[in-house]
Each structure stands twice: as C-alpha cells, then as structure tokens.
Amino acid sequence: MTLIRRLLRLPPVRLAFYYAGLVLLAVLLTRLFPSLRQAFEFSLLQAAPDASQLLNPSTAPGGFLSHPNVGARTLFATLGAVTLVAPIAWVYMVTKHEVRYDQSLVHTILMLPIAVTGIVIIVQWSLPLAFSLAGIVAAVRFRNTLQDTKDAVYIFLAIGVGLAAGVEALPIAFVISATFNFLVLTLWRFEVGNIYSAETTATMPARPSKKAKTKSLPSRKRGSMMFDASQLLEPEPRATQSAAASASVINPELSLLDFHTRVLALAEDPTVPLFARLRFLSIFSSNLDEFFMVRVGGLKQAVAEGITRRSIDGQTPGELLQAINIKLRALVRRQYRCVRTLLSDQLPAEQIRVRRLDDLNDHEQEYIKDFFDDRILPLLTPKAITLAGGHPSPYIEDLQISVAVVVRDPRTGRDHFGDLDISDALPRFIQLPDTTDFVPIEEAVRANVAGLYPGRHVLEVHPFRVTRSSEVKFDEKHAANFLEALEEELMNRPRGAIVRIEVERSMPYPIRDLLLRELRREVENTGTPLQASDIYEAEDLVDVRSLEQLTEIPRPDLDYPAFTPVHPVPADRSMFDVLDERDVLVHHPYDSYETTTERLISEAAADPDVVSMKMTLYRPGGPSRCTESLLKAAGAGKDVSVFVELKARFDEELNIFWAKQLERGGIHVVTGLVKYKTHAKLLLIVRRQGDRVRRYVHIGTGNYNAQTASQYTDLGLLTTDAGICSDVNHLFNELTGSSRAPAGDFPHSLVAPTNLLKRFIALIARETEHASEGRPAHMRIKMNGIADAEVIEALYRASQAGVQIDLIVRGICAVRPGVPGLSDNIRVVSALGRFLEHARIFHFANGGTPEHYIGSADWRPRNLRRRVEIVVSVADPDACRRLDGILDTELADPYAWHLQSDGTYVQHPASEGARSAQQEFLDRLAGEAAPAVS
Asked: Which of the following CATH numbers is that of domain 575-737: 3.40.50.800, 3.30.870.10, 2.40.50.140, 3.30.300.130?
C-alpha cells in the first residue's frame, strides 16, 4: 500500500490515470448517447469549402450549426475543451512550482479554450468571422504580460484545444494535450536543458532512528517564509509535504506575532513599573510597525507577483496573510485596551495626564495656540489632493503623523481634500507649563488648522498614519562599490508600497474611502494593491509608540531601580595580563561592557606593542569609545581593518556613515559580501611579546554597541586560545582578502556558511547516538529564534531517541514541543523582562563529557545559510560553570512562558515572592558579585 501511495504521488502516474479515465468516460458516453459519436471523429478532415463559400457561410457544407441539438453539442464541446486543458494548467503549476508561476496565466489557460470553442462554432467556414479569433490572441497580449517566454506555448496550446473542440475534433485535442503534458513532465523530471529548474541543490534527508517510530517531519527543503521579500522570491527546491509534516511545525510569522503578544503582556502587567509598561507598549508598537513593513509587505508583494511558495508549515503567501490578519486585528484591539488603561487610570493616578483640547481652560488653550503659531505653523505645508494640473499627488511620509483635512469653498460649494504632514522635528506631545500634563500635537493642529485655509470652511480634521513596505535592494553582483551602490539606492529608493493605514476611530467612513482612493493613486502601489482591509482603527492615539516620550519625566520611582554592573577585571591590572592567564566570560549588562570589551579595545589602541586590530561592525550605533579607539589606533600607525556590514536593516545609513568615517581615519574598511551578511561579532588583536606575537580574541553574541549593551543580555568570550585565535585569524583573512563568502576549513570553530549547519547537525546526532546507547544525553539551548527545518528534523529525531531537549527561545520558534511520538522530550520556554534576552548558549551533555558553545548564530535559515556567523567552544571551567548557572536559572524562571504542543504560550502563576531570572542575576550583583579575575 505504501508503494502504491508513493506511485500515486508521482505527476506522470496521476496524469496517466486522468487520461485513462477520460478514455473510459468517452467510451461510456458514446454508448449511452450515440449522437455524441461524431464529436470523437475527425470531422475537420471533411472537404473544405471553396473560396465563395468562405465568404458566404450560409453556403458552407455541414458544420456544427447544421446538426440538430446544437445547444447540447456546444455544451459537450466546451466541457471537452475544459477537461483537456485542465491537465495542461496542472502540469504548468507542477513544473513551475519551484520557481513561481503566474496565477493569472493559469486562469487564462482554463478560460481561453471556452472562448475559442465558442467563436469557432460560430465562425465555422466564414473567413470574415474568423478574424474575431485573431482578436482573442491579441487580447492575451502575452508578449507584455508573460513572466517567462516559454509560457507562450501554453497560450497557443490552449487555443489549439479550443479550435479542436470547436470543430468536433476532440481526439486531436486529446492527443495534443497528452503528448504535450507527458513531454513537459519528462523534460522537467530529468532537467533536460534545465527546464524550469530552480538553482538549488537538494539534500538527502537523514534516516530516522530505527529505535523510534518517526512521525512526519517538516521538509528541510522549504525554509521559512520570513523577513525579506527577496527571500520570498527565492526558488523553492522541488519537494512535497504532507499535512502531518506541516502540522509538526509552527509557522515562523505567526510565532513572531506570539512573541509580540508576550511583549504586550508586559505592558499589561500591573506588577511592572509604570514607565516600563509605557516602554513595553512603545516597543510592541514599534515591533508591529516593523512586522507590517517587512513581513506583511513581503507577503503582499509575493501575492501580487503570483508567488505560491509555501512556508515551513505549508501555507501559501495568500493563506498566511489571511491568518496573520486575524491575529493582527485581535492584537490591535488589545493594544488599545492597554492604551486606554494607562491613559485613563494608571498615569492620572500619578498626576500624569494626556488631555484633549476640550478639557483645557482658557489659559491652557492660549498656550497651545501660541505654541502652534511659534513652533508648529512654520513646519506645516498644506498639500491639496486633487487632479488639477500642477498639483501632483502628495507623498505621505512613512510612519509619520499626517492630518486629513476636508474644506469647503463657499464660492463654489465644492469640498476639497487635503493633507498636512506633521514633522518629526516636532514633539509628539506638548507639555503644559509647570505640569505633567500633555496634549497630543494633532489636537493643536485640529484647533488651529483653519488659519491655513483662509476663505474656506474646515469641515473635517482627522489624523492618520501610513506604513510602507521597507525594502532596500541593489545589484550586489555587479556593484563596483557596495557603499556607493547602497548609498545611491538609499537616496533614490522608490517609495515603498503602503501596507497599512491607521486612522482615528472618529474618521467618517466617506473620508476613509476618499483617503483610500487617493492613496491608491500612487504609482508605486500598483504592484501591491491597497485594500479596505488595510485600514486599522486607532481607538485613542494614532502612533502608540510615541508614548515613550512620557517616560522622560524625572520620576525614577515609576521605573526599574538603577543598578551598578560588576567590573570582572580589576582596574589596576592590564587586560592583556589577565587574558594571558585565563579566559574571561562576560555577561552583559550584569558585567560592565565599558570596563571589559570597550576597555580591551581602548587599551589595544594605546598599547605600543599592539601591531594589528581587526573587527566586525554590524550595528555600531552612535559615537562610542570603540570607534574612537579604532581611529586612534589607525592614527598611531597600527594596522587596522574593519568589516562594516552595510546591509543591516534600518541601520544602512548609519553604517554608511561609519564606514566613511573609519575610512577617512586611515582604516582599511570592507563593506560587504555578495549575497551574504556578516553577522559575526569578532575582534582580533595581535600584540608583540618579546620576540614573538600573541593573539587576543573577543567573540560576542551582541553588537559592539554601548547602548544596546546596557539594554540587551549578551555574552562575550575574551580568550587567547590558540585554536580559536587561528580560526578567527583565518576568517578575517577571508573576509578582507576575498569577495566571496568564507569557504575554508575551521577546525576549532563553527562558521557559517561553511560548516556551522553541518557541525550543529552532527552535535545533535551525537546526542541522539548517546541516548540510543544509554549514555547521558541532554541538550540545553538558548537563542533568539529557531525556524530551520533541517535542524528541527534533527531535534525531533533526537527527542524520539530519548534525548532531553530544553530550549530557551526568546522569539520565533517553529518547534512544536510535547507532541506524542514526535517531540515528547522537547521543552520550550521564552523569557522576557527588563532586558532583551539576546545571548546564545549551546550545551551538549555528550555522554558525560559536556561541551559549551557561544556565538552569534540562531537556528534560522538566514543565520545558517545566508550569513557569516561564528560559534566557538568555551573550555574554561569557571566560564562553563557560569554558563550552566545561566541556563539553570532561566529554565527555572517562574515568570517564563511555556510553549504548548498546540502552538500557544502559557505563563504559569508564580508563587508569592518569586523572582524572575533577570531579577535573580540583579540580586546577585547586590549581594555576592561575580568574582573578579585576579
């Protein structure tokens, strides 16, 4: 039975059964209805009429119209055409599935034969009427619309089937249809001439453990439909996936929305300090903005381009958009419930109020009027939205508060629609003097906008905000200079398609319809249609992320208490002297970033014995001691090389700035690799010691950014280990000396895209083997996200073999834990709190000889396959004990969220007095600080 099912999945076998069924059906119909027999004869072989008959169809011999029951025969011919063209459309979708196909072409293939059949029946032998058939071909306009020139063959074939059906020659249509389809499948299957072949290499799936009954596993060939629209457009390797396999994983996009939901839960938590709740609400809103800009924008683009590549859980872009929309609507409603609670109850209880203009007294209204005249009015430019000549459709800035204005001209009685953009240079809230009361800036505009439209009556004033798809693309292959090419693209980048419109609830529906209609006029939106479903109601404020401005009030009692980080290295000892003795593992922000990582870079820049410094920068942020030290080192004559990754989303312009600054300072700057992002966090220092040199390495999980080092939890390893230093030296040589991704051997490190995925799979397989042989087998992994199908498949095999797997995953998690027979031994927790959990730790029990790793990579397709990453082994016993302590504490966090097998997250009630993992670490700072290295 299994063999039969496998055979039935093969396209040629399915096609053979289909055509065999058609033959049997034709035989049955001709026996039941003898009058249909002529439809299966080659009637077009009858003698053709002479020229006079061609011009006068009334004298033409026989033909379809001369027979009785013409209606029934027409219906039969039409159904026959559709029946024979349906497998052609199916073969088109099957063979083009892995590269993408055009849905409109599928519809054309199915509909065109019906039109052709009908016209041929009417035309018969009439030459004048035959010209109408040419009109059909012209209407198709395949030269302009087809995405692939080979697709024109399908158009001609559909026309041919319609012609054959119209002249009652269905056997000819049958032969054409069957021959063509089997030929195309043969060419596709054996990649003759590489027809429709995706530029990917399939990997053979690993065999499941013989000792465990394996359920359906996710196809590793799918990857995750995430992040960049360009990734959505990548060809998908030829693979099929059962419903059971799809159900064994969680969609990454929906999992990301679940992460945002957990952030929103922190904003709703009354035990969290009030200002922290405002920040979490702002972070949630910013996360939601980015989700629309990146994920929704990419999926809408995929739908518009007819892409049908399925996500890791088997959903098409269209299906995924529908599922996302349902969750987004519920999240937005919950977001505004939280806004209402904070603005109406929590903030007023602390004498902080966000007030409307109607609530102000005369003196306060006069202050707002003066503020408008002095600060706001000079920055406002009314823009008419009209078809009148000389008034182009105004461009609405992305994520910026705008105001829709409807005014009436008393001379003509006509209403006009306009737009006002409120500059980002203005504060979101206007603080009233000597109070902690604030007025939203749109209230000031609403009250005073009439002055901008003299001689007209202002009828409606409503704030709104648009969110645009964010995608920066440039030709990496042919760019002579990455920095110049990306800088030019940023300057001239097209306006992103609008993917969301936020309007205040009071905006009337006619105004919403008018706004939607005007925004649809943007040329850039023709590729990604804007729908009424893209409008979201703001129940209170438009742009909730701006609430963070309120936390600038000096009220430390409403925020988390301040803390002082530990200084692991004594101030009276050189960093180099300490590292000559042993490795140092730092855990930020509990360990000071300034007195460890920044200090090492600063000492290296000033040390005359340091001859060389090499470093990677991904998101360096604003000015810092690191960049200052690098410039100082170059100025002192040291050999300094810095790899600045320009392609860091939303930080491209800042990275370009730093690349230029460092290059002007005499530093050798490399700005990228074709098709790969360099995400590794690396520092290599070469220092003279007598007649030899010694190398010092820092490998981190976070960026060299002082601001995020105080907000994110990250790990850093400072080491002189010979193997690690050799690998890092080798990696830098490849980054600075070649334009391609690293391809060398790194025996002491896990490096992507070279060996990282293969090594991780091998480490998981080793734990599986230990469990099968009865040896200690346990994995504890902490990371930001996991969504790679090949890794998930390996984890499921390990679970089935008896390996206990504990995953601490902050964000996206496609693993479905606790499924009987599949993932019984997998547990997934997610911890959120004051700091953003950003560290990566990999612990393998290894049969009783445990191994620990840290690095920059998550288990997601982009990290394992499309980025330069590095993960290294931690050998120092004290460092390993500290890593174990971090894992133990976070796995026991009473406030952690636990992922259930149905894909939901549950937070169990914590006992009274329980402390979160982050609070545990902070309490240890206040009590017994982490021992300093002496």
From this structure: 3.30.870.10
